[in-house]
């Protein structure tokens, strides 16, 4: 099918799962000017997002606010809806902008500077630390390293911010959600040097079998999203099969990374069953048993709500 003729807008609602599952990383729209929760397509209000999710068995979600414009609203959203808890952080691609770094990274894009970046990095991290103490915040994240969207100076700042988030997660006894893009070895090095929090999650896991084995060795969790369904990602599926069941989580990272066959269209928690079913297929698992295992693991990481 050509790009021009591909369907647009929200994909159809998939078949419901046989048991509830939690989306442990999503970005709902919260009203920011460059809100990461917004993609092309007709608007869905939060009530409709939650209705669709519940209808297919996605009964709870972790809403991630990873910049100063979305962190506080994400906490407020979690207070307003029992099905939602929050994670907060300064995203690794945000940290250099708060530090005044304006270099062009390997992605070739000019820095996207916003008014929030007038806040110095130290102050931005302090605001996140205050928000993370809210009882509706269940994780620090997403934080980590992104070598694709940072040059040499940016990588230094990312590492500084990553270490600050690790320290915050350990201080508060919260899980850490890691963003790792083309930086596997450096992420592992920082975790080992500083001491990873007891509950450490590689959000949208993008590694290979070797990284899955490192996670297994250290008891780190790996959360799989839509890319595990993409045709070319055989190495990612091999990593999925290598991971112990008790370290496996699932997410949408909505509105990004929509699972096959709807890749390129907006994503939302109601589409999580597409990824769960592919995980069951790859692991040769009974679907209902997998759902129960995923829920148990999610609660071991984030608690119940």
Short description:
With 305 residues, the protein is of the alpha/beta class. 38% of the residues lie in helices and 15% in strands. The termini are far apart.
List its salient traits:
38% helix, 8 strands, 8-stranded parallel beta sheet, single chain, 305 residues, alpha/beta
Low-confidence stretches: none
Q: Give the overall average pLDDT.
A: 95
* Helix content, binned percent: 25-40%
Work out the strand percent. Answer: 5-15%
Q: Round the Cα radius of gyration to an integer and report it.
A: 18 Å
Distance between the termini: 42 Å
Q: Supply the helix-strand structural class.
A: alpha/beta
Describe it.
The structure is a single chain. 38% of the residues lie in helices and 15% in strands. The protein is built from ten helices and eight strands. The protein has helices at 46-55, 71-80, 95-98, 121-132, 152-172, 184-194, 209-218, 234-242, 272-283, 287-302; strands at residues 21-26, 58-65, 84-88, 137-146, 176-181, 200-202, 221-224, 248-250. α2 links the parallel β2 (58-65) and β3. α4 runs parallel beside α5 and α7 packs parallel to α8. The radius of gyration is 18 Å and the shape is globular. The model has no long low-confidence stretch (mean pLDDT 95).
